[in-house]
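Hi F.,

I've been meaning to write this up properly since the lab meeting, where we talked about keeping a consistent format for the predictions we share between groups. The idea is simple: the sequence comes first, exactly as it goes in, then the structure tokens exactly as they come out, then a line or two of notes. No screenshots and no reformatting. I'm using this chain as the first example so we have something concrete to point to.
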Amino acid sequence: MAETKSYIAGLYCSRCGKGHSHEIAAHLCDCGSPLLVRYDLERARSELDRNSLRDRSPDLWRYRELLPVEREENIVSLGEGFTPLLPLRRAGASLDIDLLYIKDESVIPTGTFKARGAAVGVSKAKELGVGTLIMPTNGNAGAAWALYGARASLDVKIIMPEDAPYIARAECSAGGADLYLVKGLISDCGKIAARAVAKHGWYDVSTLKEPYRIEGKKTMGYEIAEQLGWRSPDVVLYPTGGGVGIIGVYKAFLEMRELGWISDKPPRLVAVQADGCAPIVKAFAEKKTQSEFWENSRTIAFGINVPRALGDFLVLDAIYSTNGTAVSIDDDTIVASQVELGRQEGTFVCPEGASLYAAAKRLREDGWIRRDDTVVLLNTGAGIKYPDTLSFAPPYLEMDAEL
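Output, unedited:
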């Protein structure tokens, strides 16, 4: 069987540091904390030259040595990754930020950044011989894992809130997943999934309950650095629900420094949430290392409607360690920002992505973002996946009307 040259060296607990094998299906540590992937970066530094990436295919597997899949035949791909880093010149001028960019994940397969985690997570599940996956989801992750699971010929079971976006539900059905709707939040879906795992022994791919989704998400950090000529931006703003992406981006910049691929420090990370569900923002304001469950959470930015994340302490550590911050935005401002970005730049971003523009505006007004900072908004998906967010009533014309 063909091998990829992965430098994976094992798993370790993100809280207690205990080591775990990457050759068996693993979930949480004995202490109940998420596991992370460790690589032999010392060996990778001596053997792997970043210049060797130049002629590789423009997808996330260009970083395959720093991903956990060890055999090439187990890679499950739909061409995900290497999404554009677009300059926002008009929007930047309106915010008084000289170098404002958007990392646009709307063009990735399944329409959101969730495809990254699904590609790597499903590939590793296939390599481990997993037969059935189960996950709770707010919509987009379930859609991605359903479709990638179909490509890998895996059985997939998805549990999501009944008011999840319709398009995500349709994607799950298109992929042949068993889809179940729940009258409740993602936290309620998680409880049902946990009972099913205990009963049937299915492979739980809930956020941070398997170690490999984060490895797909971290490639956003590698791409940003490569697209900026192997340097760190000053600020990255990220819409934060379960927090896997912001943890992954931080992990990427730490790995690149250890590899010698970048010399500057990681960017200041900004966790952006909605006013109706802001547990990380509250914990940060109170200088805590863990968040509290957010009661009665509700926001149109459905992807970040997560009352409490399993990896909240990792999100907060990433913010504190980079001298970052956390900001929450109200729903009306999110919608207004969607429209403003669309009219200025021709980008129809998802509500979660729109929250970043509003957050950048506030942080620039407060002086936290400087005019000469290089700032990246990490738009996590396409606005067309939320067709009901923007309501409008265009005038109708008669057939013989003149304009």
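Notes:
The chain has twelve helices and 13 strands.
Residues 194 and 224 are 35 Å apart (CA to CA).

If this format works for you, I'll send the rest the same way.

G.
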